[in-house]
Amino acid sequence: MTERELIVGLDVDDVLLALMPRWLHEYNEAYDDNLSTHDITSWDLWTFVKPECGKKVYRLLHPTMYDWVEPEPGAAEFVQAIRDRGHTPRYITACGDPKNTGLHKHFAMAKWQALIRHGIAKDGELLLPGRDKSRAPVDMLIDDRIENVEGFRNGMGVLFTQPWNDTATGPERADSFSECLALIDYYKEEGQ
């Protein structure tokens, strides 16, 4: 196979930006609890919170939260390594209900500003907001949600390990950014 540039789709929440710790901080403050990221062992966050909170935990998620969200350790260096290999990063993320265009735009802007502030994204790169990542215009998708990886149809999907997907089986998996880079290198040489 000849040398080629890949477009690498990178999920924002809990791949590049550590959303869950901040979200749990807000929940713990509001409901006098002490949940941590490692307590969340499946995608349904509401099943881990106090019953009086339940699905209201999703109402705690708001765009201003990204003023406080920290990057995943090594995220900026990982994205720069993608660029250094001659590939193009694309930031793919759900931004709330797309029918609520005002809130959708606020989430997209808040996430983009956090990516820029933490030195992950650069001006001129693209944030692609959307829930359905199955046909994202990228060659490779790195995401922490197994359904997104399994449904991805345009190339190689990689599941980025987090406590809520730790027992998932099936797709390619990366436990670290260095493993993601190894899979990018492999896909560049051996991919479809």
Task: Summarize the structure in words.
The protein has 192 residues and is an alpha/beta fold. It has a domain at 7-18 and 70-190: Rossmann fold (3-Layer(aba) Sandwich), CATH 3.40.50.1000. 31% of the residues lie in helices and 16% in strands. It has 5 helices and 8 strands, in the order ββαβαβαββαββα. It has helices at 19-31, 75-84, 101-117, 146-151, 177-190; strands spanning 7-11, 17-18, 70-71, 88-93, 126-129, 140-143, 156-160, 172-174. The chain has a 6-stranded parallel β-sheet. α4 links the parallel β6 (140-143) and β7. The chain starts with 6 loop residues before the first strand and ends with a helix.
Q: Could you outline the blueprint of secondary structure elements for this entry?
A:
Elements lengths: L6 E5 L5 E2 H13 L38 E2 L3 H10 L3 E6 L7 H17 L8 E4 L10 E4 L2 H6 L4 E5 L11 E3 L2 H14 L2
Parallel strand pairs: 1-4, 1-6, 4-5, 6-7, 7-8
Antiparallel strand pairs: 2-3
